[in-house]
Amino acid sequence: MRDLNPVNGLPFSQNARPFLYGGELDAVAAVLDSGQYGHGEVTEHFERAVADLLGVPDVVAVASGTAALHMALAVANIGPGDEVIVPSMTFCATVQAIRACGARARFAEVSPDTLCITGRDVMDTLTPSTRAVVPVLYGGRAADLSDIHETLADRGIAIVEDAAHAFGSRYGGGRVGAAGLLTCFSFGPIKNVTCGQGGALVPRTPEEAMRVRRMRLLGMAESPAERARSASYRVEGFGVRAHLSQINAAIGLAQLANFPVLEAKRKQLWRQYESALTSVSGVRLVDVDVDRSVPSLCAVRVPDRDRVFHALQACGIGAGVHYPPNHLQPAFARWHRPLPVTERIGEEILTLPFHQLMGADEVRTVVSALEGALR
Ligand SMILES: *Cc1c(COP(=O)(O)O)cnc(C)c1O
Question: Where does the secretion signal sit in this chain (predicted)?
């Protein structure tokens, strides 16, 4: 039997990695045999499976989380001259999606305990040009802005959630994505569920769903199946090449079939870290609200982070930094404003190896190496 998840070295030498459950190989082979690699039935089955899991009427699958964010902002009519509030503490993809629309990013602080933006942070950052807010569900934790939903709606400010970390997490009475907001997911290689590469967006209305379905296929009105039977096609608006290939959708479907296993495993792993870290002084664990979340990473704040990072790397432990703040990046320098809380977090943040090939033994090894590095 072929080893599905071969480890090169020790499991904790990688900060994150995908996990295969076994159905992926046959599912991909079936698509390869079909000769239909573009958007197709398998993609639509994947959309249905995601919608069912989230408990929402519809989901639009796209090529990546970044494309989902870009198209979500575009269907929310964000464009040149508009200002979009975004936490600086996020992956650069969130900010590039704003830039792709021609809009301006206005960087906001986050709570130092959760690394998620709060209603307070948004209100402190708002200007008369603000047209959208993109909360990032850091580590898998729902970002609760319900205290300002009404205020934002009154001012015509859209919420586009970056839930790249939070697939399967709970919010209110349902899953993240089911609260009536435009919510974007990533199914990239190291996310909770992977398609290899992929993403999805939860539209707010059938009209919005239709617009995104058109936009992801270069603005063409006909589906690929309709085009195959027609002598022409109509291009009806702005579009990008961002459909989800059937090859990627097949991987995602096989992964989703194992969702309960991954949900339990990722919660268990995070709790193992939580209990192992209680005895380590000088380390602050970033809380993900594990009872409600499917964690996607284990982040801590430590003094002298760069030294600790290199000490762990030297022991073969795949420490990471999620993330260097975006307002300090050259590409986004024009939107720089001082953000003292985020700057401090940016110097302290460290992510520990977190993926499904790890177990209690690996967590203990990582935590004792961390203890050693802190001494
Ligand atoms: C991964 C990620 C994205 C982008 O998703 P891709 O599928 O890699 O394009 C956006 N935001 C955050 C917070 C992410 O972690």
Answer: none
